[in-house]
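Input record (Table S2, row 515):
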Amino acid sequence: MAALCLSSARRWGAAVTRSRGTRGGVTATHDEYDLLVIGGGSGGLACAKEAAKLGKVVAVFDYVDPSPRGTKWGIGGTCVNVGCIPKKLMHQAALLGGALKDAPRYGWNIPHPAQHDWSTMAQAVQNYVKSLNWGHRVQLKDKKVTYFNMKASFLDENTVRGLTKAGKEAVVTARNIVIATGGRPKYPTHIPGAVENGITSDDLFWLKSSPGKTLVVGGSYVSLECAGFLSGIGLDTTAMVRSIPLRGFDQQMAALVTDYMASYGTRFLWKCTPSGVEKLQNDKLRVTWKNTHSGKEEMDVFDTVMWAVGRAPETKHLNLEKVGVRINSDTGKIIVDASEATSVPHIFAIGDITEGRPELTPTAIAAGKLLALRLFDNATELMDYDNVPTTVFTPLEYGCVGMSEEAAAERYGEDAIEVFHAFYKPLEFTVAERDAAQCYIKMICLREKDQRLLGLHFTGPNAGEVIQGFALGMKCGATYPQLMRTVGIHPTSAEEVTKLHITKRSGLDPTVTGC
Ligand code: FAD
Ligand code: NDP
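Output record (NDP complex):
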């Protein structure tokens, strides 16, 4: 194995300091960095850049193990390469397809049916992602952060070893180490043919040609979003859900999301669990599954099977046992306290790798920045994980902040909460004669005293844009009377939130009529 002297392993900038001899033929240094970050994704890069801004000597290790299909990508982590960014762009491609269908009613002459070309979309999305990879590298260079494109593991509490694909090695030490290695999609390895014949979201966004008739297995964010945009660009798409959709979300809202998808072309196999994927001679995939409702074995043939059955934290290769960083043995995630500290005081963890935190980019970024400020700028502010807003980018988007109706009822009791709701019709749906049966808003608040808001849920166009501003209100402790004093912006869907006045308890028809 070739040993790399640090200065030659270093791609970008910072000077080597405090070098102290060798370790097994490898140049080793101690306390060389103020901060070493393992994982160049949303959280890790945010933390590294913030620390560098404060004048600290910082290094980042980032390395992508190719997927079982061989897909790989550059720096930036899940969100940039195989998550939020390509997903939202492909969702946009699907929304444009919907707009094309609406367009004739608004006077446009559009050839029918409009054809979608996967490779044009994929190429454009992939080029954009590559530009983001480049942008991250330039930013690291500008900020004099040392970037190692190497897979890292701990040698001891202050020492990390990096390994390139070709077996080159670097050993570096740091006073503070942040683990931000995120997660990767799981495969149901117990299902014959699952790994050999299936793909995951790690592959989908990098496919050069259309996945064709696709089965997406899973009932959560990744599954529904991917099934949603595949249907939206005109592919024959099936989602197989073994239990409930969007576990953890308000279940009334989750049902609206899947009802809309079903009415716009996604086929759902409810209460079904896959049992095998076999490749046929014509390269098609025969999938068998058990319908737990009917007890029957069923099958169909697909071009692509995509597993969206959850994500596994990337802790296996880090050698955490050796340094005493505690993980939850059930989930494999790293246990941290409110300051993101692990069981080893100068080793921290942020983002998807941590136990009990939301798996979202903005929380990883905010946690990373705040951690750097606490470490290097005498700051004391902790990341507040309460009332984190989120949006599921399904064909009918679902945005929410705060508690689900179920969670609020469980926490406060049904009598102590009030649920205001409305079925509304987005203006853009009217001329297009789109069905708005699933466009719904629900707000949960305390019934007594100040009627503080507990949760807000919205299905409809631009749900993320709608919820973002109200999330500020929730953060500031907004109450129902304050919401009622908020003037709406007309004509928008968001203004319907400021007009919510019908309670579920009243049993009155919550359909909005007129302006
Ligand atoms: P990551 O971004 O995963 O970065 C970890 C990095 O560490 C990776 O580059 C990895 O290769 C590297 N690494 C791992 N092990 C090592 C090692 N030993 N040595 C060196 N490097 C290593 N969130 C949203 O907020 N909005 C969305 O719309 C959204 N959409 C998503 C869609 C999909 C399909 C998926 C899968 C996720 C989505 N997410 C979304 C979630 C979001 O992508 C993650 O929460 C976020 O990327 C987590 O950031 P992180 O820094 O914890 O880890
Ligand atoms: P989740 O862990 O949230 O969901 C996994 C899904 O797979 C569940 O529906 C689960 O069903 C199902 N499942 C698990 N095992 C099997 C199996 N063997 N056979 C069939 N179905 C199975 O994972 P996701 O990958 O969807 O999402 C991970 C995280 O990524 C999310 O929590 C979210 O924070 C983040 N994300 C955010 C997005 C956004 O902000 N828009 C978009 C995408 C991801 P069951 O419920 O029965 O266990």
